[in-house]
Structures are given as C-alpha cells and as structure tokens.
C-alpha cells in the first residue's frame, strides 16, 4: 500500500495496518474513504485496496476485476451518469506523446466545423485539456469545450452536433460527452457544458494556469509519463490517478486568478 493511500486512510480515521480485512473489506474501506475525502478517493485507491488483500500491485489486478470495480463505483465516483448503449469504442491506442504543434490547427478545424453546425446554440467553443497547453505531453486527442445556455436542453444542440460527425457518449449533471463513432478516428472529445458553470470555469482555469506556469506544466508532464507507464491498459485508472494533481492545481489557480483578475 502506498504511503499516500496510508495517509488518506488515516485522515479518514482508518488504521492502514488493519484494513482491508475480514470485517472491513476493500469496498467498505473505500466507501468510508470517499465519504471523508470526496473526489480525492479515486478508482485507483479502490484498485489498491483490492490488490492489497491479494498481495499484488494494483496494476496486476485482472481486467475483469478492474471492470467490476469500475462498474460498482461509477455512481459513487461520478454521481448520476448515463452511458449511451452502442456508443463505446474498443481497440483505440492509449498513449501519451510529446507536444505536437499541429494540435492547435486540429482544434481550429474542429472549431470551424462545430461553429458551422451549432450556430447560435454555442455560446463559446474552447480548446481545453492537455493538447491546449504548449509544451505539455498529452494523449493525441483534442478536447473541445462547447458552452451552451443549458447543457440539459439537448434539443437545442445535440442534433446539430451529430451533423458534425459526433455521437453522444454519456450524460451527467451539467455535462455531455460526444465523440466520433467507432468507425472513425478518435481524434476529438467534445464536452458540452453550461455557460457560466463551474465545469466551464475549472477547465479554462486549469488550462490557463498551466500555460502561465511552466513549473506546474512540467510537473504534470512528469506525472503523466509515470502514470501512462503504469496504466496504459486502463484509461479510467490513468485519468483517476491524476485527480490529486488536478485538485491541487485548481486550488493554486484560484489564488492566481484572484491575484491577477483572471476570468473565464
């Protein structure tokens, strides 16, 4: 069990030397951890607790067991979420590559396509995620944030977005994820959120803070390289393992935003 997880267990009032065990299994321990720490209790923590009881590393958990844990914990980790049947993809490469100067141009092409399709349904269309930060290694997938007046009003934008070559992947409160169907290249993820929402603000703030702070960007790059070496086979775990860094960075970015007058 990693030192970081041991510290989080102690923060939740649990003795790392006693859990998991016969009376308090990995699932029950993780639920207590999540109740106390919220988003900082991640899917990887659940993997690690499960693996600790077997004397193996979390990366060594069989895929079937990891899938079981993902499904069991999804609602706890994400709240209400609906994954659309038939929208999945399989076999896509999962890798982190060096920064590609072509990424802004790829975003611009998609921005034009989405603007033409969405018209006045979109309040703004922004390049977010790691590919939007010059010099930052990333998965070669362009993340695009489309702000709309009401993400829940799909009738205002979904059909138009689908005409641009996208399908709806999932729904969750305040957010919709669209991507190309399985027959097409996975080159873009489109995140629809409410204009003025916390979702919109956090993604723009995180991007702009990393653009303005090379040390934070480089720390994120090092973390990404380490995590992809461990979780190349598991996209969900790779994303979950970045949670602590993202939350810490957003906390620092909030102070920076207040000091500099930054706004979305």
Task: Summarize this structure as a short list of keywords or feature phrases.
Beta Polymerase, domain 2; 6-stranded mixed beta sheet; 264 residues; alpha+beta; 2 domains; DNA polymerase, domain 1; 12% strand; 6 strands
Describe the structure.
This protein is α+β, with helices and mostly antiparallel strands and 264 residues long. It has two domains: 3-79, 5' to 3' exonuclease, C-terminal subdomain (DNA polymerase, domain 1, Orthogonal Bundle), CATH 1.10.150.20; 103-260, Beta Polymerase, domain 2, CATH 3.30.460.10. Helices cover 48% and strands 12% of the residues. It is built from ten helices and six strands, in the order ααααβαββαβββαααα. The protein has a six-stranded mixed sheet, with helices on both faces. β4 and β5 form a beta hairpin. The radius of gyration is 19 Å and the shape is globular. The protein starts with a helix and ends with a helix.
Low-confidence stretches: none
Q: Quick one: CATH superfamily of the largest domain? A: Beta Polymerase, domain 2
- Chain oligomer state: single chain
CATH topology of the largest domain: Beta Polymerase, domain 2
Return the CATH class of the largest domain.
Answer: Alpha Beta
Number of strands: 6
Mean pLDDT: 95
* Total number of distinct structural domains: 2
Biggest sheet layout: 6 strands, mixed
The CATH architecture classification of the largest domain is 2-Layer Sandwich
Strand order of the largest sheet: 1-4-5-6-3-2
